[in-house]
């Protein structure tokens, strides 16, 4: 478990002071994949570096498995870091060493026996799918392969926590997927708690259980990925959700429909089992309405199907109101698109 | 020609031993100083601003004094260390004072080229400052360090030519006393020719070694 307790990080002092983090309170439960998303300059980098004290919080406490890191001696911090793996955007591998040696490095620092090191590194390379690359050098590998080496290296000391610092931001979409799958496997097979910082909403959607939205060093919103995606509260969260749920109607279409008297547009959001029902055709028959689907999308968040429709209702105003009530009775969210442009 | 082949051979050996010994000692001094210049700077492993500023200043002072002046200025130190202020051994002392700070700067530069991310990764895996220096920084900079030492060696060959001023001997001395002062053009050509070959050979070897370490 990772806990941030009113963590503040300030660089510089006086007028030049930069407040990278202001009063961060976060809890990452054991075994969870927790994502922190924010635009550049939001303070993500400082936040993740506070966990292993690469950056020391100016105020507040960092607890890992209930142990306050900020009170530890340098030696104790070094020992604790062996329980916290970290991977980086630019991999940070040793270019002068082979893949094998890179992965072995954390073990060699602890002066473990050669045979133990060889066994462990061989296993790790097999786990990340690079058993045939042991004797190659990082500059002979692709970006995705380099990140796999980084992951193997981070896992060498059997950590209980893995920190991912924009781990997929330098990779193409396909490679990103394969790295995210690997991270999920690590989380499931070794029950390692993973904290990810990213600016890519796809990363959050693909593997995170929980998400916190960071802006100007403050957590604007946090919750389960499902809740934040289906019902974002803060403006920044909405922006991020929009970035991958491209569900905005073009202005021209909206304006055209606005001018027609018997036309209304509603967003219908349904989840789980209700995705399987023929909702629209029933409504259309029952209330004598014409329905025109302007946008439709169904996706899966944390394994739960989530549908998002934008529908034009054409017909009598009173009938439309009745239809909306009927939909809402099935616990399906309906929002007026024209009146609250969301 | 006013000099014999034996004289040239002897001068060659004097140059080689002057350069060799002064390279050895100045590396022994310059290498740790170069590392200290990197790790004590702001934001680095063992940040220590007063120490960095003093060391940085001292190195600049030595680097500012022209070698010929330095050689004369430190005669008392030379006499204290080797017991005499004249001869090949006596020339090594000022050469070390000259090349040590120079090497420290070159090493500093090479180590600064290492990606900061590597240091961060090392810290994140719980490496001690010593481990970070010797298992991460130095190996990553090795190819560049070899080139730095090559540059220092060539610089030392140049400086050793001036060692004639304290009776240090060597090829430079021969070129000045015979080639220049006695107008012996042949000796001049021969000594300068040997020096050119030495420098070319060293630089090529250095480049080759550095390339081999870099594997490209």
TrEMBL record, chain A:
Entry keyword set: Amino-acid transport, ATP-binding, Cell membrane, Membrane, Nucleotide-binding, Translocase, Transport
**Listed GO MF terms:** ATP binding
Query: Coiled-coil stretches, from where to where?
Result: none
What domain of life does the native source organism fall in? Bacteria
All copies of the ABC transporter domain together span: 2-241
Sequence intervals crossing the membrane: none
| SMART domains tied to this protein | AAA, NIL
Q: Which Pfam families match?
A: ABC_tran (PF00005), NIL (PF09383)
**What PROSITE patterns does UniProt report for this protein, alphabetically?**
ABC_TRANSPORTER_1, ABC_TRANSPORTER_2
Instruction: Determine if Zinc is one of this entry's keywords.
Output: no
Under the heading InterPro entries, the entry gives:
AAA+_ATPase (IPR003593), ABC_transporter-like_ATP-bd (IPR003439), ABC_transporter-like_CS (IPR017871), ACT-like_dom_sf (IPR045865), MetN_ABC (IPR041701), MetN_ABC_transporter-like (IPR050086), NIL_domain (IPR018449), P-loop_NTPase (IPR027417)
What is the name listed in the Swiss-Prot or TrEMBL entry for this protein?
Methionine ABC transporter ATP-binding protein
Q: Which organism is it from?
A: Jeotgalibacillus marinus
From TrEMBL, chain B:
Cited SUPFAM superfamilies:
MetI-like
Recorded hits in CDD domains, A to Z, give:
TM_PBP2 (cd06261)
Q: Where are the transmembrane segments?
A: 20-39, 51-74, 80-100, 145-167, 187-209
- Give the top-rank taxon of the lineage listed in the UniProt record for this protein: Bacteria
Q: Tell me what topology the record assigns in the membrane.
A: Multi-pass membrane protein
Record Gene3D superfamilies: MetI-like
Q: Which InterPro entries match?
A: AA_ABC_Transporter_Permease, MetI-like, MetI-like_sf
The cross-references to Pfam families, in alphabetical order and at most eight, read: BPD_transp_1
- Database matches in PROSITE patterns: ABC_TM1 (PS50928)
Query: Which UniProt keywords are listed?
Result: Cell membrane, Membrane, Transmembrane, Transmembrane helix, Transport
Domain spans labelled ABC transmembrane type-1: 12-204
Its primary localisation, in coarse terms, equals: membrane
Q: Where in the cell is it found?
A: Cell membrane
Which residues does UniProt assign to the signal peptide?
none
Q: Hey, which family's this protein in?
A: Belongs to the binding-protein-dependent transport system permease family.
Protein name in the entry: Methionine ABC transporter permease
């Amino acid at each position: 478990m990772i806990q941030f307790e009113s963590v503040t990080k300030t660089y510089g002092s006086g007028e030049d002071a930069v407040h990278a983090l202001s009063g961060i309170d976060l809890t990452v439960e054991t075994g969870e994949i927790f994502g922190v998303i924010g635009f550049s300059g939001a303070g993500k980098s400082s936040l993740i570096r506070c966990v292993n004290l690469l950056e020391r919080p100016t105020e507040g406490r960092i607890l890992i498995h209930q142990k306050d890191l900020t009170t530890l001696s340098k030696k104790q911090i070094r020992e604790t870091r062996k329980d916290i793996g970290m991977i980086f955007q630019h991999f940070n591998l040793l270019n002068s060493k082979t893949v094998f040696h890179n992965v072995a490095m954390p073990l060699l620092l602890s002066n473990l026996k050669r045979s133990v090191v060889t066994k462990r590194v061989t296993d790790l390379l097999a786990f990340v799918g690079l058993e045939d690359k042991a004797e190659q050098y990082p500059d002979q590998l692709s970006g995705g392969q380099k990140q796999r080496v980084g992951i193997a290296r981070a896992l060498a000391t059997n950590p209980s926590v893995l920190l991912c610092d924009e781990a997929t931001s330098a990779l193409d979409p396909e490679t990103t997927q394969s790295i995210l799958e690997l991270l999920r496997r690590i989380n499931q097979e070794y029950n390692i708690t993973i904290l990810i910082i990213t600016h890519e909403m796809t990363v959050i959607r693909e593997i995170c259980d929980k998400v916190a939205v960071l802006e100007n060093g403050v957590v604007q919103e946090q919750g389960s990925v499902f809740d934040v995606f289906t019902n974002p509260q803060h403006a920044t969260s909405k922006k991020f959700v929009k970035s991958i749920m491209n569900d905005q109607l073009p202005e021209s279409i909206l304006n055209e429909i606005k001018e027609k008297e018997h036309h209304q547009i509603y967003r219908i959001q349904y989840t789980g089992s209700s995705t399987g029902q023929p909702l629209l055709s029933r409504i259309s028959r029952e209330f004598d309405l014409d329905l025109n689907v302007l946008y439709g999308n169904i996706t899966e968040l944390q394994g739960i199907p989530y549908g998002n429709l934008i529908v034009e209702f054409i017909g009598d105003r009173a009938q439309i109101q009745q239809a909306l009530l009927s939909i809402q009775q099935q616990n399906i969210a309906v929002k007026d698109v024209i009146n609250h442009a969301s | 020609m006013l000099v014999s082949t034996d004289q040239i051979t002897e001068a060659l050996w004097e140059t080689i031993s002057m350069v060799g010994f002064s390279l050895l000692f100045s590396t022994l001094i310059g290498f740790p100083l170069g590392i200290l210049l990197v790790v004590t700077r702001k934001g680095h492993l063992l940040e220590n601003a007063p120490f960095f500023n003093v060391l940085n200043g001292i190195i600049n002072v030595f680097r500012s004094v022209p070698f010929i002046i330095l050689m004369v200025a430190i005669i008392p130190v030379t006499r204290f260390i080797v017991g005499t202020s004249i001869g090949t051994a006596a020339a090594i002392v000022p050469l070390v004072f000259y090349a040590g700070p120079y090497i420290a700067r070159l090493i500093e530069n090479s180590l600064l080229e290492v990606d900061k991310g590597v240091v961060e990764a090392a810290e994140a895996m719980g490496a001690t400052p010593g481990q970070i220096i010797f298992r991460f920084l130095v190996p990553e900079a090795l190819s560049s360090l070899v080139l730095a030492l090559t540059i220092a060696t060539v610089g030392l060959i140049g400086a050793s030519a001036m060692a004639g001023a304290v009776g240090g001997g060597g090829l430079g001395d021969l070129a000045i006393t015979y080639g220049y002062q006695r107008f012996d053009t042949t000796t001049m050509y021969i000594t300068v020719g040997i020096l050119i070959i030495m420098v070319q050979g060293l630089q090529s070897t250095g480049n080759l070694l550095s390339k081999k370490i870099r594997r490209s």
